[in-house]
Amino acid sequence: MQIKLLVEGGSMKPGPALSQKLGPAGININEVISQINEATKEFNGMKVPVELEVDMGSKTFEIQVFSPPVSELLKKEIGVAKASGLQDKSKAGNISIEQAIKVAKAKMGNLLCNNLTTALKTVVGSCTSLGILVESKSPVKVGEEIDEGLYDKQIEEEITETPEEKKKELDAFFAELKEAQDKQLKLEQKDEEAKKETAVVEEVKK
């Protein structure tokens, strides 16, 4: 019997779904959870796909851990648990092309891509839906620059470490952007509240 799970890396907890499947088989659920947590501890804080192969006859099991989804790896790179839900108005982070290459290398086997450039473009494309900038630019623009060969050196040499000076520049750019975003969101919230108050007053007047 094969069971597919998506667990919190290193901190899976007992749940009814797993109990219903393993309980009747006489498998020690706590032992399963303990081994899964041990196998996924390096992915702490991320959602991790796990496959559990259970032998009903011998009551034994094997665990196969897969690398987390691209979205989880990108969120780890920017240090957030949740990406932006307002991609157009609010950006969640700003990564370097080297960080994007790092994620592409980690996921290449699962992305059905025949080379690192294609895998990188897939990762950069995922940044759009997560509200993540790449090289302080929109992921769409960076995708075009990849096609133009702007990052051929980094791709060919599979560079995954961001130079410290560059990292500071990216962080400074995002800090300034975030401050502006937060101010804009507060203004919009105040405007929305004012509209609601006006609507209430108008309703009372009727």
Structure explained in plain terms:
By secondary structure, the chain is of the alpha+beta class. 53% of the residues lie in helices and 14% in strands. The protein contains eight helices and five strands; from the N terminus they run βααββαβααβααα. The chain has helices at 16-22, 29-40, 70-78, 97-107, 116-130, 139-147, 152-156, 164-205; strands at residues 2-8, 47-55, 60-65, 93-95, 132-134. The strands form two sheets. A three-stranded antiparallel beta sheet has the order 1-2-3, covered by helices on one side. A two-stranded parallel ribbon has the order 4-5. A hairpin with a 4-residue loop joins strand 2 and strand 3 (60-65). The longest helix is centred in the last third of the chain and has 42 residues, at 164-205. It is flat and about 70 Å long. The chain starts with a strand and ends with a helix. The mean pLDDT is 86.
Notable characteristics:
206 residues, alpha+beta, two-stranded parallel ribbon, 5 strands
Short description:
The protein is of the alpha+beta class and 206 residues long.
Furnish the topology, listing elements before pairings.
Layout: E1 2-8, H1 16-22, H2 29-40, E2 47-55, E3 60-65, H3 70-78, E4 93-95, H4 97-107, H5 116-130, E5 132-134, H6 139-147, H7 152-156, H8 164-205
Parallel strand pairs: 4-5
Antiparallel strand pairs: 1-2, 2-3
Structural class assignment: alpha+beta
Task: Outline the biggest β-sheet.
Answer: 3 strands, antiparallel
Q: What's the SSE pattern?
A: EHHEEHEHHEHHH
Strand order of the largest sheet: 1-2-3
Low-confidence stretches: none
